[in-house]
Amino acid sequence: MQRFGSLEVSKKEVYIYYKELENKLAKSTFYNHIKILRHFYHFVSNENPHINNPFARFKPRAPVRKFVRVLYEQEIDTLYARMLENSRISDYQRFLFEFIYATGMKPSEMQRLVLSDFDFITRSIVVAGDNGSRRYTFYSENLEPLLLNHLEKRQSILEKQGLYHSAFLIDWETGLTVNGHIIYQAITAIGKELNIKLTPSILRHSFAVALLENGCDIRYIQALLGHISILTTQIYEKVEIKSKQNTIQKYHPRGKKS
């Protein structure tokens, strides 16, 4: 209510606010935001009949709920072993795979990384989100050798090409910076080579579910992923529950179908 300063809001103020959110937020976040406001004002108008619900006429279409495809820890390990055995998958592709799975970052966020975003003592990274926000994410000790190898390779390529810039991700042939589309293509190409559906989003989802399955608090995962609404992050709880149900059905004597 800080935006309006009062519970009584004009239709014009609400319309302007509605349009700002619609243009700024992802469809699912926008829908949830308006839904909460509608419910809140419904309660207020019931308690205070003189106050109308200014959001009553605003009914955004509910977004189509996506099926979240994830790879579980054992699947990730198996997939990475297959990548190592396949000479058509480059070291660069393997690095991008590990980096996304280790940090949960989007390609659009990765393309904005510069060297000063990294703290190699705390193993933390400052991430510039798509909505202009900034957050921290962290990487494990397991990623460190691959990360250092990438930095050495990066420096060697830049020196060879006579280039100097601070972009973290570069093309290993030209030394030029890469964009999110190139990162996306590199990951999906791995999937095509190994005959498996694979995208950066799948790795990002897998990162979140791996944390959740190992006991990480959902709000911490929300912060690491940069989700504005906790409702967006909670979809991973449903994925985890479904996974556990499938495990019980497969292994528990009472869970197996006769």
UniProtKB/TrEMBL annotation:
Coiled coil: none annotated. Pfam families: Phage_integrase. Residues 66-249 form the Tyr recombinase domain. This is Tyr recombinase domain-containing protein. It comes from the Bacteria. The keyword Zinc-finger does not apply. Keywords: DNA recombination. InterPro entries: DNA_brk_join_enz, Integrase-like_cat_sf, Integrase_catalytic, Tyrosine_recombinase_XerCD.
